[in-house]
Amino acid sequence: MHVWYGAGEAGGYREDLALLGREEKLRGARIARDDERSWFIAARAGTRRALAEHLRVGPERIGLHWDPASDFRAALLTVGPGARPLAVATVHHARRWLLALAPDGPLALSMAAAGELPRAADRLRADARRVAAARARHLAGAAFVVRDLPAHGPAAVALARPAGTGTVHCHGLVLATFVAPPACRPHDGTRQGGDGTRQGG
Q1: Which of 60, 99, 132, 147 could potentially form a cystine with 47 if both were Cys, beta carbons 3.0 to 4.6 Å apart?
Q2: Number of domains forming the structure of the chain
Q3: Are 33 and 76 in contact (CB under 8 A)?
């Protein structure tokens, strides 16, 4: 499975909005604060571009069917008639966003940032794991496990994925003003492959 780390860039609002599906546009329109609405739209457009590059199709061909229980955080991906749907999860915090792609679900992501009150890194990681697990429980599917992933800037990251899934490949998207982690490194004792990716568990 794959996880992308990305960040929204200012100035592309119209181009980003054009990539979103009707449901995503309606969800964005319900966000009251201008900055939060912009980051939501930028995050969803960024995930579509990452998926399009990975699958070697145009971003307009990325069809996401959102799970109504996920508040636009989990979807099935289709790229054409007869293609097997893939599980997608996404989450954002301010300008930072994450995307996960796997053959099967449940799949859920979480980011936990300190906010105004500083919190220890282990507390942030525990909060991220708790939220990822809660989100996965709302989704129909097989049993899941929750694992820490590398932090995204100041935010702790956790991923809930089907039990028995193998290596997680992380992709860092390099932008003009932002460089994300290029590889997954375990925080919880799972075995690490020679290429820096997580294996097992």
Answers
A1: 99
A2: 1
A3: no
